[in-house]
Write the structure tokens for this entry.
Amino acid sequence: MDIDAALAALNNPTRRKILEWLKDRDNFPPALPEHAELEGVCVAYIQDKAQLSQSTISTYMAALRKAGFVTSERHGQWTFYRRDEAVIAAFLSAFDGELRNP
């Protein structure tokens, strides 16, 4: 795990908020009927909640994806994001180990 890259992705309060929001799908409007069975949240819902431009949200999500904190899945014109809990847990463990161990 590249702790520096992970910390760079987390070095923005909105990106941290997005990760927090993605913990619970209920933080967003209901999925469209044709997307009801899909996991994750449509990027348009993330953009709306964050009240930022599409390009800014795309940049933020790319940083979170590069760090491994989220995964993305494309369905037609829509991109859906969800947290990668295993990567988040690995980061927390690695970071904790780095801070606590000499």
